Amino acid sequence: MAGQRKLKGMISVRRFGRTCQGRPWLRLAVLIGVAALVLAPLVATGAGSSVCFEAEKGTLSGQMKAGFTVSGGGVTAKMQKDIKEQASGRNYIGVPEDGNAEKTPIAGSCTIQFTAPAKAKYTVYLRAWWLDSCANSFKLKFDALPELEIGQDTTYKSWHWVKLNRPIELDGGAHTLVIKNTEDGALADQFYLTAGGPVPQGKMAPTK
Fold first, then answer.
1. Are residues 33 and 104 in the same domain?
2. CB 3.0–4.6 Å: which of 11, 62, 128, 160 could bond 108 by disulfide?
């Protein structure tokens, strides 16, 4: 009896194999179904979608300025030249050193309109230049979402990418980002938002 059960199992496997071989359309349908299951979540969540834009493309207000010469805090003439030459488009925004002195409350912002390519949770990166530990942050406000702080790392006097500490969920389409002044001496060059794309390195090509 055990031998017969084993034999029946073997026959069943062979029959299934012959059935598939005799119906290639069935195998194709199975492969298409599997592919749809794998790809559907990626399409639905906008995985791989990214957008990059320049910080200075926005509308400036208050103490927030564009392309000024950085001074103070031990910044040399060579550093001043490098800051501009190594910035994307040779431009950037920020608040000049001592620009917040005796200002109550601290004001100044840059309002940027941008387009998210798809509905997704985006990791937000800022290409920044910090003067020192008292000049290493901005506040970001996306649409009507709460303000979030970006920065507070300890990489000073060089352009580098910093990551927002939480993803931002956005629908595909038009959005508003407000970059708010928190500390003078901090510079912003580019923003890069990605849903599963590569970590940014150096200057990124702005999305057209």
1. no
2. 62
